[in-house]
Amino acid sequence: MLQLYWKNATDKKVGHRHGVTQRDLDAVAAAIGQAHQTVVGQCRRSELGYAALPGSTQYVSQVRTLVEKHKPTTTDLVMLGIGGSALGSIALQDAMNPPTWNVLSNKVRRGPRMFVVDNADPTLLADTLRCVSRRLKTTLVNVISKSGETTETVAGFMVVREMLRKRLGAVFAEHIVVTTNTEKGTLRDIAIADGYDMLPVPGDVGGRFSILSPVGLFSAAMCDIDVEALLAGACAMKRRVEGDADDWKTNIACMLAAIAYLMFTKKGKCMQVMMPYSNRLCALTDWYRQLWAESLGKKTDRQGNDVFAGSTPVKALGATDQHSQVQLYREGPNDKLVVFLEVVKHPRPLRVPDVFADVPGLAYLRTVKLGKLLIAEKKATEYAMAVSKRPSVTITFNSITPQSIGEFIYLYEFVTSLMGELLNVNAYDQPAVELGKETTFALIGREGYKDMGKKIRRHTRVDKQYLV
């Protein structure tokens, strides 16, 4: 069970200017209670699609059917998606499988090699296709786009589809699985016409909340991750955070949201750094960054008033970034809340050998477990931050399992909903992202965007007097 430790975010540790006081907590208590009541009500009235995913058996059944069909004949899985259609899958893969997954033998691996093309970078796609080109007959491509018109994804799909069609002939469609809106949309229509297998993207679940849907579950199950255990962990956290909030300080989601809210609105912490002390959790912070930034970074509140809400999510890795970022965190602007992710038990204990006993600068490391060293690094950084009056909290994983990862995912989805209520913003739209999509359409020449394209080109034309 995940635990939150928040003393290092209080005035007792970092002073009243930078830390949460009892008065701060009392002042926000009513708002937290109302936010919790509102979000729980939305979940129970099925108004938040992500809240239904942990208990859904339909999606698991659909995923399992296609996994049973394709996994025995698949050596390579190529995923095409971007943002919420990719970050969750990468996070699950990195958390649950070894970093050497793709170089293990087929027999040892118990699943296909996994490649994620999550950008329009031509080198990324070309090198990926070159890597699988000799095994196209045993390669499966999973194209993920809810709308079916995501520019970067469908451009890559068009390249890959043509390669498969030319090399494999009439059977090329057997090598494509499309995850999209199965009721309408461009990609859905193509899938029906070509004869691809399809998986649904739930219509009421935004991309950044879709990790526990077929968007994330298919690749996870293909790569031997226990998706039932993942969802069980999410269910356990759902029950935990939706419980009675009369004593909201005992509710991990309410407490985490309260601290984040107070730090942003009262303590001047416009950035929230997530710093896991495990490489296996590093990609999970990428997923968190999209969830937090896209949900809470809003210009206006629900009444249309300019509020410019949202703390900026930042990624760091312990202990690596103790040697690259902590100097700034301790002595630069005091505008950050650090969220440490700590792991008590690592799956493969490794001990430093009993050598260099006669070397004073190294002898202290003899026989030390690396897991113990990593925990010591975290505690040392936590202490150093507190000494510098820099607030932090710690989320502790007893171990990294499908259950604990499921717990973390649902926890942050729920906290994000609470923050939306506290900040009075719509946590489920992304108007600024939509404008970026439309301007891309205009610059590439999509029909209906000609006038916008002319306007943008005038703006982006290079003025040589500013070129050095």
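That was protein one. Protein two is written in the same sequence-then-structure order:
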Amino acid sequence: MKNIITILTVVLTLVLSVLGFFLGGFSLTALQKETLNILIIVCMISMAYCFIVGEITTNNSQMDKLWSILPIFYAWIIAIRGEMTIRLMVMAVLITIWGVRLTINFGKKGAYSLKFWQGEEDYRWIYLRKDPKLNKRWKWALFDLLFISVFQNALVLAISLPMLAVMDSSTSFNIFDILIAVLLLGFIILETIADKQQMSFQTKKYSLLKENKKLEDLPSPYNKGFNTTGLWGFSRHPNYFSEQSIWVTLYLFCISAGVVSYYFFNWTLIGSMFLILLFLGSSQFSESISKKKYPEYSDYINQVSKYVPFRKYRGPKN
């Protein structure tokens, strides 16, 4: 059943992306083309930085550090060049709130350093480097170039492009824009709560482990090793659910601005659709690690939905 859902998610995402490209081909104005060229230059500089510095330092979290920072730059470049209309300002402010919060949260994990290229590396890159398919130096360098540096940078630019689409909109800021802004802010708050709950759980767990205790000797719920409290008792990845929802919601501004074609599509939808695919793969990989580390995690998977908060975790079934 889970494999069927995964396949359907992939197929639906790709179909929506194709529809967005072919049915929503609005023409860029001269201003939009010039702005897009600036954004592409920034993106290419970031690609080069992430690959070169990642290879030299063997710390492949360079893009992880920039993930929450680059959209802020993209947003304000577009807003300023779009003459700071109300809609562009609202979108830029919301993206800034999202980016600043996520940057602070990532910084609490030790990801940033005064020497920007240093700091804690995402644990998933450490696991992936040991994978037989990637454990040779040239294979990892190719993966670093194509996926970490090029694809992820291109994706971050792509999810920001709904702002580019509304630059020259003749539709005034309206009630639908306000509702979309409130919805987007709601998802930012939801992601904030999810991250805070996870941070509190993990901090307490590792604090208890430092007292020379084994995981199974810790008090409940820390003895499981993974968080099942708060939002995490209803969704295995409430933060991922919120993150994907934020960028899909940002696209809705294209609809309120009247810059969509048939069936409410335009090609800037592609970014948020491919973001969904990225998180699908990322969540599957992180869960494969958790299943190896924590005996009860498989039971948690069977009881709790991956993204949308739906079913509450009831504990291991006897």
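The mean pLDDT is 89. Keep this in mind for the problem set.
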